[in-house]
Write a structure and sequence with these properties.
Elements lengths: L11 H13 L1 H11 L6 E5 L5 H10 L4 E6 L2 H14 L4 E5 L11 E7 L8 H7 L4 E13 L5 E2 L3 H16 L10 H7 L3 E8 L2 E2 L5 H12 L1 H7 L4 H4 L1 H15 L2 E3 L2 E8 L2
Helix pairs in contact: 1-8, 2-3, 6-9, 8-11
Pfam family, one: Methyltransf_31
InterPro entries: Methyltranfer_dom, rRNA_Ade_Mease_Trfase_CS, SAM-dependent_MTases_sf
GO molecular function: demethylmenaquinone methyltransferase activity; rRNA (adenine-N6,N6-)-dimethyltransferase activity
Length: about 270
């Protein structure tokens, strides 16, 4: 989803980062979507569909008898999503341009989903409530987002702790909530949904696995301007050119097991 206050941009590097991130969190996303109520044959709206990764996961869940509509504001991401859909040969996925805050469908969906969208929306409750009208009675809204409050390394790695503080400051400066997943029970309830549920999944990375370092530093790079503007660190002190290597080496040297943000699913049904 690209909004006027979306902090991470939408250039080629950011789209590539989103796809790499999507690959890392694909498994917990699929688990949470199914747990939230997605099933074969459903017609599903994917809000803030970006380069298409969640839409493609949903297409696999709903199968050939289901259908997915991805909604995205950014034309650059729509173009990438459509190209990837065509390369995958998916006939049950369509993409369209629109704003998640205001979109109203011509006919209701069985489910509405989003991933890593609500953290960027200060009016998340209003957006959730708005999409009740896009659901048939009994339809489900499933959101997947972060809870960064559980990010840690054991034993503690001082550089990793500092990087976590940078990200927290950068997201807060950009008026994004990096722990929005922890608030899902309240948000869905305030938006008027029934049968509200939540589940968080946590990945644990061994000391010598460098994939997590690239994942974390990719977000730091995308959020660089907001982090620096927050005043928590200067660009020089950040040392982005060597940060991934330094972070990986620090975790490995400490023999630490470390976590990236908890992937949280929240869901509720329309009466």
């Amino acid at each position: 989803m690209t909004t006027p206050d979306y902090a991470l941009g939408s250039d080629d590097d950011e789209i590539a980062r989103l796809q790499a991130q999507a690959a890392i969190i694909a498994e917990p996303t699929a688990v949470l979507l199914r747990r939230g109520g997605l099933a074969p044959g459903m017609r599903v709206l994917d809000l803030g569909s970006g380069p298409g990764d969640v839409s493609f996961l949903v297409a696999d869940i709903v199968g050939p008898d289901g259908h997915v509509v991805g909604l995205e504001r950014d034309p650059a991401q729509l173009e990438v999503a459509e190209r990837r859909r065509d390369a995958l040969g998916l006939s049950n996925v369509a993409f369209g341009q629109g704003d998640a805050r205001t979109f109203v469908a011509d006919e209701p969906f069985d489910a509405v989903v989003c991933r890593l969208l609500l953290m960027h929306l200060p009016d998340a409750v209003d957006v959730l409530a708005h999409h009740r009208r896009n659901l048939r009675p009994g339809g489900v809204f499933v959101a997947v987002d972060y809870d960064m409050s559980g990010v840690r390394a054991r034993p503690e790695v001082e550089l990793f702790t500092r990087v976590g503080a940078w990200l927290e400051a950068g997201f807060r400066h950009a008026q994004a909530d990096p722990s929005v997943g922890m608030r899902f029970p309240v948000l869905f309830d305030e938006a008027g949904f029934d049968d509200v549920g939540t589940l968080g999944l946590q990945m644990y990375w061994p000391p010598r696995d460098r994939q997590a370092a690239g994942y974390v530093v990719g977000v730091v790079a995308a959020l660089r301007d907001a982090i620096v503007a927050s005043g928590v660190v200067t660009e020089r002190e950040m040392g982005l050119d060597t940060l991934e290597q330094r972070l990986g080496e620090a975790v490995s040297a400490a023999g630490a097991v470390w976590t990236t943000p908890t992937i949280v699913g929240g869901w509720g049904r329309r009466r």
